[in-house]
Design a protein that fits this description.
Elements: E1 7-11, H1 16-28, E2 33-38, E3 55-58, H2 64-71, E4 76-79, H3 86-91, H4 94-114, E5 117-123, H5 149-168, E6 172-177, E7 180-181, H6 190-199, E8 205-207, E9 213-215, E10 217-218, H7 219-232, E11 238-241, E12 246-248, H8 249-259, E13 268-270, H9 285-289, H10 300-313, H11 315-331
The chain binds nicotinamide-adenine-dinucleotide and thymidine-5'-diphospho-beta-D-xylose (TDX).
Length: about 325
């Protein structure tokens, strides 16, 4: 699509997907200079970037002056920074509006001023949910219908990017990906929460009946797709990223219990998340046929085993956050 990328700004690069993007980029494109802009909220950790060689700038993506200065120095921006947890958005939506909407707006104004290419990372949750018994999947033309403050703020950020492409001619692409799993994921999220519950002697917890379906993709597959879009994506286009990984929560939990040597009934059902989306499913056809992308992790059980091994070996990375998160969950009416 354009000249090769040699200097990239990664917003939210100290978070789960951003940090994995930085490490993957270091492995696959050692020539690329990486600057990370991250506010280091509860979800960001500088330790996640250890050994990556990335330059970390601690700051807010909604800080116009700082963002302008950083964008001026690069030829591409990959925008991961966000408040990302649905449960948190139900207890306090305000940081979601600030970071996901004002932060994206701030970045758009900077890339507009400097003519810098942007890739905006978004979620399949902008499309709302699907019925459990319906074979349909989300495509890039599915109507937006977000359910939670989190997904509404991401939907709004997508709309801002599309408008800046159309009205101001910025060079931007978008992607909407399904549920990621892998190393460095915050212990508030479903898979790491259950793994670290087992590792700390707690009983895993399933929201409601656990029939909700998520379309799981390994974080490295998400990030190879982002690079493919950076290299060959069409300006203004939205690409859906998914790896045909639909599973209900009960099945995922059963696999975790089995792989960790726990009994099949060794968990509790807890009160359900308000407004809990039933099912997400991605049709990633155009990414495969037009851009030739393929996922590497096609066996979820294998990717899950690697992830369990990573959490076993890295309790120093998650132990403190675990206690903080569980205190927060204890104050919620669900979970
Ligand atoms: P995360 O919560 O693990 O990381 C978010 C990062 O952004 C953290 O490092 C945090 O410190 C940083 N951040 C938050 N507010 C900031 C601000 N105002 N300024 C600068 N940095 C700030 O999230 P994640 O799971 O890595 O998600 C990354 C992106 O991918 C998000 O945009 C999310 O919507 C999207 N996404 C996530 C998933 C998933 O399954 N996790 C799926 C699809 C899309
Ligand atoms: O303890 C739990 N028990 C449980 O049953 C938790 C934390 C979650 N759940 C359920 C709720 C969901 O059906 O597991 C499923 C996954 O929950 P989350 O990890 O909170 O993810 P989800 O709400 O599906 O959103 C995720 O995917 C889309 C990411 O957090 C978003 O950032 C991304 O946009």
């Amino acid at each position: 699509m354009s000249a090769p990328i040699t200097r990239v700004l990664v917003t939210g690069g100290a978070g789960f997907i951003g940090a994995n993007f930085v490490h993957l980029t270091r492995r696959l494109r050692p020539e690329v200079h990486i600057t990370v802009l991250d506010k280091l909220t509860y979800a960001g950790d500088r330790a996640s970037l250890a050994g990556s060689g990335a330059e970390l700038v601690v700051g807010d993506v909604a800080d116009a002056e700082l963002v302008d200065e950083l964008v001026a120095r690069v030829d591409a921006v990959v925008h991961f920074a966000a408040e990302s947890h649905n449960d948190n958005s139900l207890t306090d939506p305000s940081p979601f509006i600030h970071t996901n909407l004002v932060g994206t707006f701030t970045l758009l104004e900077a890339v507009r001023r400097h003519g810098v290419r942007l890739h905006h990372v978004s979620t399949d949750e902008v499309y709302g949910d699907l019925a459990l018994d319906d074979p349909v999947r989300f495509t890039e033309t599915t109507a937006y219908n977000p359910s939670s403050p989190y997904s509404a703020s991401k939907a709004g950020s997508d709309m801002l990017v599309r408008a800046w492409v159309r009205s101001f001619g910025i060079t931007a692409t978008l992607s909407n990906c399904s549920n990621n799993y892998g190393p460095y994921q915050h212990v508030e999220k479903f898979i790491p929460r259950q793994i670290t519950h087992v590792l700390t002697g707690r009983r895993p917890v399933l929201y409601g009946a656990g029939r909700n379906v998520r379309d799981w993709i390994h974080v490295d597959d998400h990030n190879t797709a982002v690079w493919r879009i950076l290299d060959a994506g069409e300006t203004g286009r939205t690409y859906l990223i998914g790896a045909d990984g639909e599973l209900d929560n009960r099945t995922v939990l059963a696999m975790i219990l089995e792989q960790m040597g726990r009994g099949a009934d060794d968990f509790d059902h807890v009160a359900d998340r308000p407004g809990h989306d039933l099912r997400y499913a991605i049709d990633a056809g155009p990414l495969r046929t037009e851009l030739g992308w393929r996922p590497r992790y096609t066996d979820f059980a294998e990717g899950l085993a690697d992830t369990i091994a990573w959490y076993r070996e890295h309790s120093d990375w998650w132990a403190q956050a675990k206690e903080r998160v569980e205190r927060r969950y204890a104050e919620q009416e669900w979970g």
